[in-house]
Design brief:
Oligomer: homodimer
Strand content of chain A: 15-25%
Helix content of chain A: 25-40%
Shape of chain A: elongated
Number of helices of chain A: 15
Number of strands of chain A: 18
Structural class of chain A: alpha+beta
Chain lengths: 443, 443
């Protein structure tokens, strides 16, 4: 066996207790935001028929997947690279009997057979929320607001993260107003998408190929970099680009509803947000760190054709995906993950100590199990020492809230209870240990 | 795309909301029992180097695994069929810096490329708890008691489930006392393991091949089927087999400690529990339905050689694995999963209804977001009807605890709050909605 077998496969992670506490902390925020916003949790297989992914994304995706076949089997499978095809398949199978809109969330593991990079691993976790069967700005913003709620619960603010929003219909009307012919709309959107990757002269040359005049190219260039807070009137943005504010009607609808929800300061309009052209059909958005230096924390939008693609009826849909890796980096950079997870571990309610003696040795395991059966988080030491001071030190290292010490008082049915935060110690009846520890003065 | 692509792969599951609520219910019992018993949660990669599994189980395991290689890659990977090799690898990598004993739990998904059967799927979830670095009956029973605690929290009792326990050292001494030569001990254990699969005459013939006399064969046959409550004295069992009770010293130690923990009635001695011969080194156990008709719910024991196998120091270890499939069947058979999960879904704290009118339509989305930001589970309707009776019906179907109705009273800043369990309705100030709903009389 090679020594590499002693390590996790490249691009995957071992989650030791403190590492997992960080992941659980993030997942708890995702889950509570989802539930509070009325989404129901679902899950699907970790691997699917390979065709489920090629149907949506074409054969080109195969090289980005971990795919396999069972020995002697006939089907090709792939580890899921995204969760939306599973959602669409599950909805298509039961479209007639699900309450509309279907509001689902999931926190599955995902897999990509690419070279690992900062913010991009071969196995990661992704929060997915989807609203299927409803259309309009309120439903798009229901998804976005849920994403914002989770970030708020993790301690992030609009000074840390902005949701950059665009809308296919608004962009199409803007492009027409700038003079882009209808058959060049898709090319123009591709160019918007690539704005940050092209040199200015290259960008101008490609804009010219869209059939734009010199003036049109200049305005298209302004538009491609145009971004402003959703709190500001869209007429300002339209004026900067030199088009009528009417062209941004779809964005204005999002703006009006975001104002009602009280999330305007979290949102920006960003004409350069394009995302998958063959896939998204209306609102598109990405969650970015304010610096813009990192990968997007989340992305999503409206995709009205997806359920139909997997054999279901035509159903409008809007969704969001947010991975754990970039988010955890953002939290860590802002010191929102104290001690890299150690203090996120659940604190023991009580640490039970034997001060020695036959009675204590016999009583300790009994008491520990009674307390655990009562729903208390109980730890004890497996050391042979009966030095109470040393064992209290271990209790403190375990971050226990209290210590129960079985000592000489056990002879008349009493034990010592020490509050490890305040240091206060008192004697209680052994028979009342559960009641005291579960009561308002206890755990 | 073939129509089979619209289905989950054979042997895997789609978890619709009520299905996932059942899984989460089981996982919550596993997790709370683990935490209360002082285990820390860990996780590892969903796939590992294939060699991690062949190192432990030999090349023969390859046909039972989903294995694959990245396009252009050089490593063979396999979806994890069990979690223990990952635990051993992770401990071996940091053996010097982990607190001893290492007490870890995990709830990973597992994969087996076998033909699916009742209680055995290609993807399932398994609870793992492991205590590494400590030996002795108290540590073995720490693991067993944690398993029992989880079952208790799911509503199961010793009348439903028994933990069948054996011990390698006790069995070896029993076999010697019956006249099995030392070099035939492993063969004899293999025969014990197969007791239910062989016809009586075949069993007797193989027992003879162990070198046993006619009397020895008869007593071995009794031993192979011997089982009794751990609450009964082991001398009874020894007498039945015709050996000295001293041979069962290792089992008696388990019995004494189980008595202290108060779990005797959950446990039986079962000489026929063998499990992997090359793997387990002391205590072995299986959790079974009382009828014995189903597969084991859980299994485990002491395996002192494992960490060393993966490059770490020699460390004693004991662990348990419990899958979700057989357990869910046991709960379902006993009506311990009401409504197949629907009533396990989280109940909305409040369902917000607009009775119509411009003010209510504007106020509703604002209020919904305010309540969600306050940590309340809030649902609303996306229907166009403003018939309050119909919408209250939807609130009831959603199992909401209360309904907030935005109606005419909104003009002077009031809303109606209806308790959907009692039917009681009152008028409250809109400004106090959060305080009322979060207070002791609210959610």
């Amino acid at each position: 066996m090679g020594t590499h077998s002693f390590q996790a496969p490249k691009g995957t992670r071992d989650f030791y207790p403190a590492d997992l506490a960080v992941r659980r902390h993030i997942e708890a925020a995702w889950r509570s935001a989802s539930v509070d916003c009325g989404f129901d949790e679902v899950d699907g297989p970790t691997f699917e028929h390979l065709e489920l992914y090629t149907a949506k994304s074409g054969e080109g995706i195969v090289n980005e997947l971990f795919s396999f076949r069972r020995a002697g089997g006939e089907s090709d499978y792939a580890l899921r690279p995204e969760f939306t095809p599973t959602v669409a398949r599950m909805i298509a199978a039961h479209a007639g009997s699900l309450p509309i809109p279907v509001k689902w969330f999931a926190i599955p593991s995902m897999f990509r057979a690419e070279r690992p990079q900062r913010g991009r691993l071969r196995e990661f976790f992704q929060w997915n929320i989807d609203t299927v069967g409803a259309e309009g700005a309120p439903h798009d913003l229901d998804v976005i607001a849920c994403g914002i709620l989770a970030l708020e619960r993790l301690g992030l603010t609009p000074r840390d993260i902005q949701v950059r929003i665009s809308h296919r219909a608004a962009i199409a009307r803007m492009l027409a107003a700038l003079g882009v012919p209808a058959d060049k709309t898709a090319d123009a959107m591709t160019l918007l998408d690539r704005r940050d990757k092209l040199k200015p002269e290259e960008f101008a040359q490609r804009a010219g190929a869209l059939g734009l005049s010199a003036d049109g190219i200049a305005r298209f260039d302004i538009a491609a970099r145009a971004t402003q807070s959703l709190a500001a009137p869209l007429a300002d943005l339209a004026a900067k680009i030199g088009i009528s504010a009417d062209e941004f009607a779809a964005l204005d609808e999002l703006r009006a509803h975001a104002a009602r929800l009280g999330i305007l300061e979290w949102c920006s309009v960003d004409i350069g947000i394009v995302r998958g052209l063959a896939y998204y059909t209306g609102t598109v958005f990405e969650f970015h760190e304010i610096s813009g230096a990192e990968r997007a924390l989340a992305g999503g939008g409206r995709y009205d054709g997806l359920v139909e693609l997997f054999g279901g009826p035509k159903m409008p849909a809007c969704g969001l995906g947010m991975g754990d890796v970039v988010l955890a980096n953002a939290l860590r950079d802002r010191k929102l993950l104290p001690d890299d997870g150690a203090t996120l571990l659940p604190r023991p309610d009580v640490f039970v100590i034997s001060a020695g003696g036959e009675a204590a040795e016999v009583e300790l395991p009994r008491l520990v199990m009674v307390l655990r059966r009562a729903g208390l988080h109980v730890r004890t030491s497996s050391k042979t020492t009966r030095n109470v001071g040393k064992l209290l030190g271990d209790a403190g290292k375990a971050r226990a809230r209290q210590a129960l010490i079985l000592g000489a008082e056990l002879a008349d049915g009493h034990v010592a209870l020490k509050d490890l935060d305040s240091g206060a110690q008192r004697t209680i009846a052994l028979a009342e240990a559960v009641a005291v520890l579960r009561g308002p003065l206890g755990a």
